[in-house]
Structure formats: C-alpha cells, structure tokens
UniProtKB/TrEMBL annotation:
Naturally occurring in which organism (per UniProt): Rivihabitans pingtungensis
Family, per entry: Belongs to the auxin efflux carrier (TC 2.A.69) family.
Top-level division of the source organism's lineage: Bacteria
Protein name: Transporter
GO biological process, one term: transmembrane transport
Transmembrane segments: 39-56, 63-84, 123-146, 167-189, 195-212, 233-259, 279-303
Membrane topology field: Multi-pass membrane protein
Length: 309
C-alpha cells in the first residue's frame, strides 16, 4: 500500500520541482507562465472535468450512499472552515487558499491510488468520487472567492454571474448532464478531451512549481498548517462519520476516505491566480501537502483497514 501511494505522489512532486527549476533558471520567459495558467483554466481543466464526468463508469458501485457521504463531509468541513475564518488570523485572500487546501483534492493521485489499492473496482469508485466532489468543491470555492477574493462580488447577482461564467463549474455541469442523459461522447471528441485533460495535470503542476517563492516560506507556516490539519485530519474524520451515517463500508468507504484525504490539486493554484486569491500561498500549500501526503495517506488508509478489514 505504501509503495502504491508513494508512486502516485512522486510524479506530482517531481513536476512541481521541475517547474521551480525552469522558472529559476529562466528557461522560459516570465510571460509564458500567466498564459499557461489561462490555458489551463479556460481550456485544459474544463476538458479534464467534462471527459472525466461524462465517461465515468458506475456499474456495481453504491453510487448514492457514496455520493451522499462525500458531499455531506465536504459541505460540513467547508461550513466549519467558514465559521472558523475569524479565528485563523489570515487575510481574506489567504483564507481562500486555506479553504481550497482544506477541501480540494488531486484526482490524478486519487485515480492512480484507487486503482492500485482496489483493483478494477477502484476505477469505478474513483469515478463516483470525482462525480460527487468535483462539482461540489468548485461551487464552494467560487462562493468563497466571491466573498473573500480580490475584486470578488458577494451580491446574489455577482455570485450567480461568477458561477455561470466559471469554466470549471460549467464543465462540471456539462459532464454531469452528459452522464445523466446517457450520452456517449463521439470517439474523436472523447480522445481530444482526454488528451487536453491529461495536459492540464502537467502544465498546472509546472505552474505551481514556478510560483513557489521560498523567500516568503516563513509566512506560509501558519496557513499551511491550518489547511493541512483540515485536509489530513478534520476531513477524514468527517468522512468516517458520514460513511457511518449513510451505511457505507468496505472498498466504497475506503475510496471515499482516500479521496477526502488527498493533497490539494494544482487547479487550486490556477483558481487562486484567476479569481483573486493568494496564489503564492496556494502554491506553497500544494507543494507542502504533496510531501505531507506521503505520511498522511498511509496512516489514513491503515485506519480504514482497521475499521473495515
């Protein structure tokens, strides 16, 4: 199990390190990185979400109990973070990074780890997890950016406009609509979206590495610790409680717990950059959680094995 988890995490850490090296040695011009971020936000990540949600195979999976447990735990932790904001001693933009670090997840690691831990069934379980959490966290994060990001509009009209104009939320809606309608993507379109989506993983992580500024690392300690405490302790505990409440157990509960304990995703940095958050802090949280996950994920999954052998 440990080897499987580390193999899923290692490429993430290496791509972040590569991005930092490319930026430090000026291999690419500074003008490249903002354009790469926009490409990822408006094209590559939406392609990833549409393809992943539309093509998910859900056969033989307790879909609704799993969805209920994942959505309930995510919303509960999000509400807890929002309620705790006055006590976190961080700026409003920094709170958006702590929030994303607490609720978002790296689905690349999740799919790889689920397949390794649960075999063929793990792929179907990962599909359900993505279908449940991806739209939930994107809507929650847009709401938080509208309230606390630079230039956010917290009015009802402003929030509705941001939700409707957000390419990640729109992509989730399209993917879920195609899945619910039983629509199969044409082969050519499916392959195109899949290829674009795979590119989002590499480019997003390179951008994260390029944004790392270790001269300000001391300022990260408190918010990185806050986000990681929520991600690796509070969220798994909330998920365990939700699994118990909705009667979820066995491999389905294990996959739910796995996905809710993953380090935050590179898309968190892209959203922070595009929606007025604290992008350098977000890059620090992503890098730190990727390393911490090497210890946290095995501990969480061992706890699952004890509870549901």
């Amino acid at each position: 199990m440990l080897i499987t988890l580390l193999q899923a995490l290692a490429p993430i850490a290496l791509l972040i390190a590569l991005g930092a090296g490319l930026r430090r040695r000026a291999v690419l011009s500074d003008a490249f990185w903002p354009q790469a971020e926009r490409l990822s936000y408006y094209v590559l990540l939406p392609a990833l979400f549409i393809h992943g949600l539309a093509s998910a195979r859900l056969d033989g999976v307790p879909v609704w109990p799993m969805v209920a447990a994942l959505v309930a735990s995510t919303v509960a932790v999000a509400l807890g973070l929002w309620a705790a904001r006055p006590h976190l001693a961080v700026s409003r933009p920094a709170f958006t990074s702590v929030f994303q670090g607490g609720v978002r997840f790296n689905n690349y690691v999740g799919v790889s780890a689920a397949a390794g831990l649960f075999g063929a069934q793990g792929v179907a379980l990962a599909a359900v997890a993505n279908a449940a959490i991806v739209p939930t966290v994107n809507i929650l994060c847009v709401l938080v950016f509208a309230r606390y990001g630079h230039g956010g509009d917290a009015s009802a009209r402003g929030i509705a406009r941001q939700l409707l104009a957000n390419p990640l939320v729109v992509a989730c809606a399209i993917g879920i609509g195609l899945q619910a309608g039983g629509v199969t993507l044409p082969t050519l379109l499916a392959h195109t979206l899949h290829t674009l989506g795979q590119a989002s993983l590499a480019i997003g992580l390179l951008c994260v590495g390029a944004a790392l500024d270790f001269s300000t690392a001391r300022r990260w300690l408190r918010p990185v610790g806050q986000a990681s405490l929520v991600k690796f302790l509070v969220m798994p505990l909330a998920t365990l409680a939700a699994c118990d409440a909705f009667g979820l157990h066995g491999a389905a509960a294990g996959a739910a717990l796995l996905f809710q304990s993953l380090p935050t995703a590179s898309s968190s940095y892209i959203m922070a950059r595009q929606l007025g958050g604290d992008a350098p802090l977000m890059a620090g949280i992503i890098a730190s959680q990727t390393v911490l996950a090497g210890l946290a994920l095995p501990a969480v999954m061992l706890a699952h094995a004890q509870l549901w052998p």
